[in-house]
Amino acid sequence: MFFLYFNAPNDLICFTNQIYLLLVLETGDVNYASVSDEEWKKKLTAEEFYITRQKGTERAFTGYDLFNVLEYWNTKTPGTYHCICCNTPLFESSTKFDSGTGWPSYYQPIGNNVKSKLDLSIIFMPRQEVLCAACDAHLGHVFDDGPPPTGKRYCINSASLKLKPK
């Protein structure tokens, strides 16, 4: 048993709201459009927030995880890659391939858990942005130079993923 001490009633409210947010985000029982940037910042690391909520890109060949133990761009661990924001399963390790780009690459997402939209952020270089279909987290981009059977290359930022090994 442990006790929590608070200086003011608002401390308790703040603490319980943070716990509620973490539980709600993990269980998926939330309208993600209503989650504020401040709430996302409480759940995510600075790097995860930058990548997923501000459409950032991590440096190639660096990989990412909380303790920099895994480099998802070159790991061969079997399992399922989930959205770091909402825990939606996105890619199976069986669809991962070495694209030589320095980012984890997959030729097929799980079901309709990933969506894409036109990205015109770079002049003269239109591309398709890849988003989590559940929470709109920016994952990376998809290109038409992947292997069979789809011919697609989902080039994904490691910071947007959480590997759940089998």
From TrEMBL:
Q: Belongs to which family? A: Belongs to the MsrB Met sulfoxide reductase family.
Query: What does the record give as cofactor?
Result: Zn(2+)
User: What protein does this entry describe?
Assistant: Peptide-methionine (R)-S-oxide reductase
What EC numbers are recorded for this enzyme?
1.8.4.12
- Protein role: Catalyzes the reduction of methionine sulfoxide (MetSO) to methionine in proteins. Plays a protective role against oxidative stress by restoring activity to proteins that have been inactivated by methionine oxidation. MSRB family specifically reduces the MetSO R-enantiomer.
Gene Ontology molecular function = metal ion binding; peptide-methionine (R)-S-oxide reductase activity
Alphabetical GO biological process terms? protein repair; response to oxidative stress
Q: Which Pfam families match?
A: SelR
Q: Name the InterPro entries for this protein.
A: Met_Sox_Rdtase_MsrB (IPR028427), Met_Sox_Rdtase_MsrB_dom (IPR002579)
Q: Describe the reaction catalysed, as an equation.
A: L-methionyl-[protein] + [thioredoxin]-disulfide + H2O = L-methionyl-(R)-S-oxide-[protein] + [thioredoxin]-dithiol
Keyword terms of this UniProt record: Metal-binding, Oxidoreductase, Zinc
The beginning of the lineage is:
Eukaryota, Viridiplantae, Streptophyta, Embryophyta, Tracheophyta
Cofactor remark: Binds 1 zinc ion per subunit.
Instruction: Give the MsrB domain ranges.
Output: 37-166
CC per GO annotation:
cytoplasm
Q: Does the keyword Membrane apply?
A: no
